[in-house]
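Summary for the steering committee. One of the milestones for this cycle was to obtain a three-dimensional model of the protein with S-adenosyl-L-homocysteine bound, which we needed before selecting residues for the alanine scan. The sequence and ligand used are listed below.
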Amino acid sequence: MNVRDSEHIIAELGNKEDYVLTNEACEADLILINTCSVREKPVSKLFSEIGVFNKHKKDGAKIGVCGCSASHLGKDIFKRAPEVNFVLGARNVSKITQAINTDKFISVDIDYDESSYAFSEFRNNAYKAFVNISIGCDKKCTYCIVPHTRGDEISIPAQLIVNEARKAAKNGAKEIFLLGQNVNNYGRRFSDKSHKKMDFSDLLDEVSQIDEVERIRFTSPHPLHMDDKFLKVFAQNPKVCKSMHMPLQSGSSRVLEHMKRGYTKEWFLNRALKLRSMVPDASISTDIIVGFPGESDEDFEDTLDVMRQVRFEQIFSFKYSPRPLTKAAEFKEQVPPDVASNRLKKLQVLQEEILDEISKEKLNLEYKVYFEEKRNNKMLAGKSDNNALVQVEGKDEWLGTIQKVRITNPKRLSMYGEVVI
Ligand code: SAH
Ligand code: SF4
């Protein structure tokens, strides 16, 4: 979502002001740091980055802090770093032109409604288009700062989404990537009360009717809202890519309850295994937090158990990081950092074993790969329908096309192969 927010900022500054992008900080008239605040580490990095930019920037260049850390730190940023010219919270992105033209501008309102704002156009990647479908999040997971930085959930009107997807597809993006904190809760609340009632499955159907769109991806869906209707659309709509992100967070029902995730281990397994049986080729990725307050060895074993049963193709794993404004930061039984580190390591070792098994099974399989990037090592890189990273030595003209590739060298994180002509 930050990548897309940055694209919106660049678009507004390019179209309504006179800015162009530069990779050289010392040449820039304006330096923007778009921040995350989900874990502590990026927040502490922010202030050292501001220091570095301040040292190297040219005279008179402005520095702006945007995104989630801007939302929750607010005017404290000016106190800690007086060289910052403006602070623009997530969900206030459309005010960027005002921000650059007002001394010490600050806007961190998490009730600000940008859901119907038609941003100017800019995309980093011509082949794959991110499209926001909602802002904010209505869940109150006890570890998570996002609802405090991005506010309540509001769905973006379907017509805006479809228009944006159509425009991107006409400009060459065969793949549309729908974004929201809880995509499959789409339709929960629209600013315009007269908006027609619709859910995420209906939205997938509408986007898939755009002829030029060949692939649709989305993130993040919430396991709680993975009802049968949603799984059926996922399985049956040929344009919906067969890769599902299912953020587990913990395999222990007890921990899940303390996290306020709204589902149990059994529900998660039921959905994941149903998905496996409906779409055997689908890949499933997940997010896992270890060391959540009160997590016992037995709870952690439940997480490993889910990993063994589901055999995720990809895991983003994190050590729990206490965040301001969240309930879990106040919980008594914080897990000692070394215990959490050991658990993270154990989890990652198990995942490597699973990935080694999974990748072996891929040798000689054929995938349809959408090439979207030329890497520094001259390889063309793209994703299979089920989200595996595939690299080939190939011709530039394959960029932006979908080709059939046979896998000759499957590795844990990337598969290498050759195009089958
Ligand atoms: N809306 C998405 C998640 C957004 S945050 C969802 O519900 O899946 C991305 C990931 O960061 C989360 O899935 C979680 O695994 C991790 N995360 C969030 N808060 C965290 C915290 N306090 N400590 C460690 N990891 C956290
Ligand atoms: Fe955070 Fe939970 Fe919302 Fe995801 S669903 S953004 S983890 S509060």
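Key point for the committee: Residues 38-39, 143-144, 146, 181-182, 220, 222, 247, 249, 287, 289, 318, 320-321, 323 surround S-adenosyl-L-homocysteine (ligand 1) (CB under 6 Å).
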